[in-house]
Design goal:
Distance between the termini of chain A: 57 Å
Oligomer: heterodimer
Order of helices and strands of chain A: EHEHEHEHH
Helix content of chain A: 40-55%
CATH topology of the largest domain in chain A: Rossmann fold
Number of strands of chain A: 4
Number of helices of chain A: 5
Number of domains of chain B: 5
Strand content of chain A: 5-15%
Strand content of chain B: 15-25%
Largest sheet of chain B: 5 strands, parallel
Distance between the termini of chain B: 20 Å
Largest interface: A-B, 53 and 54 residues
CATH class of the largest domain in chain B: Alpha Beta
Helix content of chain B: 25-40%
CATH architecture of the largest domain in chain A: 3-Layer(aba) Sandwich
Structural class of chain B: alpha/beta
CATH topology of the largest domain in chain B: FAD/NAD(P)-binding domain
CATH architecture of the largest domain in chain B: 3-Layer(bba) Sandwich
Radius of gyration of chain A: 21 Å
CATH superfamily of the largest domain in chain B: FAD/NAD(P)-binding domain
Number of strands of chain B: 34
Chain lengths: 169, 658
């Protein structure tokens, strides 16, 4: 999404929706002409259990301001229990993201069944509002800063080592 | 290798084009790396739209196709076919949803167009990584399971059985027939429900291709389209089905001289004994013993006069236990029906409080010749009503109960008005919100009943109360605002009939989970597409018929049952079905043999090859959820159609500004 240069911050949210429940619910929201914020980009997976934590890391690293996961309600998974596996991964991932300084409301898991088009609308609107309030995450920018920091540190270490070896001789 | 990608942006008439600048989106797509051609077109799914793809593949040597149009759940297969007909692998195609997920849900044209561009860019990034795949084919077992034996299940069963297919018809009640067996006459033709239903019921019983299991529940469903393994529990009725001849001698001989317990088939309006036949035309005509009321089963102390009466037939067996049956079927039809709205939920209508208030289904039994009064319409005090109010929309079109219209109540209320008038000569008042009679010969029926002198009052009933508060059994007053005359009407009547709406079965949610299908918010089973796949579900090989999918009348139910049978037949006669090739596989050289994936699989499709010390996925068992793929610490498992690099490229593409 090309960022307008002058206007207010518009969050970029990447969503991973399972084929059977949440993707279908989003289709239903469309068929029912419900209106919600245009900040979300949905990537379809067969099951929320397919969610590799690296997908989430990658989305943040590439510049997403928020990541939304949508799966079937507990007990309703088309593949029996993929959503429970997703829940386990999400719980673990949340702790990791917190350590990286990524705020809790930037990463969200929601159970949305095929008939809950209105829930898609509410969740997306709510998440966009919360992420907008947090402001840009800008992991790519942070990566650059960290890289710079690392390079400086490396240069400093190299320099010191040279000095030490010079003294030793 | 440099790819040659073609991008097509669909207008969908004005559906997409009115909110997304499709020209701008196509022009933008043309600038993306690898894209050699980008077009926008009015209807991509039309023949000319598909031809466009086919010709472009040949003329421009395209090797990857992206179509931005509606949901992939609707037209992915259409464009995959077009891609294949153009001469390249159908999976060298990627679909972008810019209708349901974009044009239809946004109001800002600039933002919607930007979203379309982002989504197209994601697909353009992804599609070069799409692999050539082949669909896998699975055989379809020819036998069919039908759950629920009302008119929908019966009709579907007969259609399939007549086509030579073996059908298992499972019904939880002791008799087949469902709600229709309880009705007296049917609208608008006024033909007797029993006269048209009972011949079909006995045909089911006699049909060599139908295995009918009443008083039975489906307890377990495993497998997938073509190969379902189903467990059915046949509950003990304590009467051996093939020995009982339905002579009723055991019922007469029962130690209870009179019926003492509420008779379920007559909605408690009549009484039955612990041993009973649901109704005279019950199919199978086999007695049932209710373990909750039978003295022998409850206490073990009874003279067992029933056993004596049965004599040499020896059909009664107090030791009978539930029987578990395991069957294998290729397709399943769900026709589990509805329940009527519980009128007690609207307390001011007085159902269950005032003896003069009945539901429409109660009155169906009262006017039915096989009902508790032998077809005589009398009040609980035995008197004929002189005036009757019929209240439409009870539990329908109401914010407080159900918002939807139950579709059948206006028509059956008119039918009951006619029957009440015919049987009793009473003054009849129909209170309605709107008279909804959209069906063949329905409006004519309304005119006919109006012409018979039934009073039609346009107004929602606000209250039902006693004319004399001290006399609970006395006359009732029905109060409503007559919205045509703009006055409050208070009509004193002897009997109030509540036109109750239709609701999903109370256990619809458990049934839905058992069969792995979806429900709407109201609890009706969800069809795959409301117009184009109205009897299919999201689970292949499972079809819907009748009111379990939503309220409908008998003609629509029978039509839908026929459609469900035809869909099942189409699968069976094809002999096999093509499945999405989205299965997972192990890259042998990458697998460390750590066994992390094995417990992840809900289908036990993964095992360990002890010799090679690696995991092996049985493709026939894999359903393609991808849970193991995400769990593999060495990235050794890949999923067709949703491979890591494909998803990563999609993430990359959606966020990268080129």
């Amino acid at each position: 999404m090309s960022e307008p240069t002058t206007t207010a911050f518009e969050p970029r949210i990447v969503a991973f929706f399972c084929n059977w429940c949440t993707y279908t619910a989003a289709d239903m929201a469309g068929v029912s002409r419900m209106k919600y914020a245009p900040n979300i980009r949905v990537i379809r997976l067969m099951c929320s259990g397919r969610l590799d934590p690296q997908f989430v890391m990658s989305a943040f690293a590439k510049g997403a301001d928020g990541v939304l996961i949508g799966g079937c309600h507990p007990g309703d998974c088309h593949y029996v229990e993929g959503n429970y596996k997703a829940l386990r991964r999400v719980t673990l991932l949340k702790r990791m993201l917190a350590d990286l300084g990524i705020e809790d409301s930037r990463f969200r898991l929601e159970w949305i069944s095929a008939s809950e088009g209105d829930k898609v609308k509410h969740v997306v609107n709510d998440m966009v509002e919360k992420v907008r309030a947090l402001g840009p995450l800008d992991m790519p920018g942070k990566h650059k800063d960290w890289d710079k920091e690392m390079q400086e540190l490396e240069a400093h270490v190299n320099h010191s080592q040279k000095e030490i070896s010079a003294h030793a001789h | 290798m440099k790819h040659r990608i073609g991008v097509y942006v669909c207008h969908c008439g004005t559906n997409i084009a009115s909110m997304v600048d499709v020209k701008a989106a196509a022009e933008y797509a043309a600038t993306l790396p690898g894209v050699v051609l980008a077009r926008d077109y009015k209807y991509m799914c039309s023949d000319p739209g598909q031809e466009l793809i086919k010709h472009d593949i040949k003329d421009h040597k395209l090797d990857r196709i992206v179509v931005a149009a509606c949901s992939p759940l609707l037209h992915e297969h259409t464009f995959r076919n077009a891609t294949a007909q153009g001469g390249i692998n159908p999976y060298f195609f990627q679909m972008v949803n810019v209708r349901e997920h974009d044009a239809w849900v946004h109001t800002d044209r600039a933002a919607a167009t930007q979203k379309a561009k982002d989504l197209i860019r994601a697909a353009v990034h992804r599609v070069p990584f799409n692999k050539p795949l082949e669909k896998k084919t699975v055989p379809i077992k020819p036998d069919v399971l039908i759950v629920g034996a009302g008119i929908a299940g019966i009709h579907a069963a007969l259609t399939l059985a007549n086509a030579g297919k073996k059908v298992y018809l499972v019904e939880r009640e002791p008799t087949i027939g469902g709600h229709m067996a309880k009705f007296d006459k049917t609208f608008p033709t006024l033909d007797c429900a029993a006269c048209i239903l009972t011949p079909k019921m006995s045909t089911v019983k006699m049909h060599p291709n139908i295995t009918m299991w009443t008083y039975s529940d489906v307890t377990k469903v495993d497998g997938f389209v073509g190969n379902y393994k189903v467990t059915v529990r046949r509950n003990p009725r304590y009467v051996i089905e093939n020995l009982c001849v339905g002579c009723s001698e055991c019922i007469e001989a029962c130690v209870f001289k009179e019926g003492k317990f509420p008779d379920e088939f007559n909605l408690g309006l009549g009484k039955r004994k612990p041993v009973y036949l649901p109704f005279p035309q019950a199919t199978p005509l086999v007695a049932v013993i209710d373990p909750d009321t039978c003295l022998q089963l409850k206490t073990g102390k009874c003279k067992k006069t029933c056993v004596e009466a049965c004599g040499d037939r020896k059909a009664i067996d107090f030791e009978q236990e539930a029987e578990i049956k395991e069957i294998e079927v290729g397709t399943i039809i769900l026709s589990t029906g509805f329940k009527v709205f519980d009128a007690k939920r609207i307390p001011y209508y007085g159902y269950g409080t005032y003896p003069g208030v009945y539901t429409s289904l109660d009155v169906e039994r009262l006017v039915n010749a096989s009902g508790p009064t032998g077809g005589e319409l009398v009040l609980r005090n035995g008197q004929k009503p002189k005036s009757v109010a019929i209240v439409h929309c009870v539990g329908s079109r109401d914010e407080n109960t159900n918002k939807y219209c139950s579709r059948v109540c206006c028509m059956y209320s008119l039918k009951l008005a006619h029957l009440v008038k015919e049987r009793t000569g009473a003054e009849v008042y129909n209170f309605y919100i709107d008279m909804r009679t959209p069906g063949k010969s329905f409006e004519e029926f309304y005119s006919k009943v109006s012409g018979e002198g039934v009073h039609m009052i346009r107004g929602k009933v606000a209250d039902v109360f006693l004319e004399n508060a001290a006399d609970k059994n006395g006359r009732l007053v029905v109060q409503a605002e007559d919205t045509l005359l703009n006055i409050i009407r208070k009509v004193p009547v002897d009997m109030v009939v509540l036109g109750v709406g239709l609701e999903a079965q109370p256990d619809a949610n458990e049934v839905r989970r058992q069969f792995n299908i979806s429900c709407s918010n109201e609890g009706w089973f969800l069809e795959r597409h409301p117009k184009l796949a109205p009897v299919n579900t999201f689970t292949d090989g499972i079809f819907l018929a009748g009111c379990c999918q939503g309220p409908k009348d008998i003609p629509d139910t029978v039509a839908q049952a026929g459609a469900a049978a035809a869909e099942a037949l189409a699968l069976i006669d094809a002999g096999s079905i093509e499945l999405e090739p989205n299965t997972a596989f192990v890259v042998d050289t990458e697998c460390s043999g750590c066994k992390t994936c094995i417990p992840m699989c809900p289908y036990t499709a993964i095992s360990r090859n002890e010799e090679k010390k690696i995991a092996v996925i049985n493709e026939a068992l894999c359903k393609g959820c991808g849970t193991c793929v995400a769990a593999c610490p060495s990235g050794a498992i890949k999923q067709n159609l949703f491979d890591d690099e494909e998803v990563f490229e999609e993430i990359n593409g959606v966020l990268t500004n080129v």
